[in-house]
Amino acid sequence: MPNEYQFDNSNALANTLAEHVSDNLVTAINERGKAGIVVSGGRTPLLFFSALSERPLEWSSVWITLADERWVDTTHSDSNEAMVHKHLLRKSARSARFVGLKNDAATPFDGERQCEATLSVLPHPFDIVLLGMGDDGHTASLFPGSPELTRALDMQSGRFCMSVTPPAAPHLRMSLTLPALLNSRRIVLLFSGANKYDIYRRALMENGSVEALPIRAILHQNQVPVDVYWSK
Questions:
Q1: CB environment 29-46: b (16+ within 10 A), e (fewer)
Q2: Contact 140, 160 (CB under 8 A)
């Protein structure tokens, strides 16, 4: 079962989570001289990014990448990379080493091989993987109904990233696969609102398929500890 941490407001959550994550990064740097963190897009983590960017640690030894990315220019308003540069890679964290998923290929399908090679420089296992969750139960870009979902969930695929066609959301995506997400020391699931909490509880408690609610692949595994941070 995940460890659950509930907060009455987003600011309290952001500050507590920033302290938790920075402590894990410091421990990793002390143990192996570097640390790796995977972060997710969306609006929910923005306060956390701001709080984390102010934490005093050896940021030049921290490698950051994304759980998924929309296949748009890195200056596009929908780009997760642009969001990370704006909200996280600043203040104390401006010296962190960021590795994006987007490359110059015309489509993510064309860019898979280059993306895999780029991600190979990151410290493995990751120290922290920060995930969100959609109203449809997707996490990263592992969408229910996506034609690539079964391959992206395959723990024997040997794949670190994979192109994804969302059934409804805009833009083709590049996503870390399930084996890549689980190649980590700790996973943090971050969301807000009673509706998301209901989806989380349904995914956690009901016996249902991972294909219907892909977040189940994270919640119903015993390979990596999961911390759930949520605010009302």
A1: beeeebbbbbbbbeebbb
A2: no
Q: Is residue 182 a contact partner of residue 223, using CB atoms and an 8 Å limit?
A: yes
| Cα–Cα distance, 12 to 231 (Å, whole number) | 9
Query: φ, ψ for residue 214 (rounded to 5)?
Result: -60, -20
Q: What is the largest CA-CA distance in the chain?
A: 45
Q: What is the C-alpha to C-alpha distance for residues 106 and 36, in angstroms, rounded to an integer?
A: 28
Question: 156: exposed, middle or buried (C-beta count within 10 Å: 0-12, 13-18, 19+)?
Answer: exposed
Cβ atoms of residues 24 and 57 within 8 Å: no
Domains in the chain: ranges and CATH: 3-231 (3.40.50.1360)
Per residue in 120-163, pLDDT tens? 999 999 999 999 999 999 999 999 999 999 999 999 999 999 99
Residue 165 CA to residue 150 CA, distance in Å, equals 12
The answer to whether the beta carbons of residues 140 and 67 sit under 8 Å apart is yes
Q: Identity (one letter) of the amino acid at 9?
A: N
CB 219 within 8 A of CB 2: yes
The pLDDT of residue 207 is: 83
Record the pTM.
0.97
- Taking alpha carbons only, the member of 149, 99, 106 closest to residue 124 is 99
Please report how the helices 46-53 and 80-87 are oriented relative to each other, as an axis angle in degrees rounded to 10: 40
What are 108-113's contacts with CB under 8 Å, separation 24+?
Answer: 108/71, 108/163, 108/164, 108/172, 108/173, 108/174, 109/163, 109/172, 111/71, 111/163, 111/174, 112/161, 112/162, 112/163, 112/174
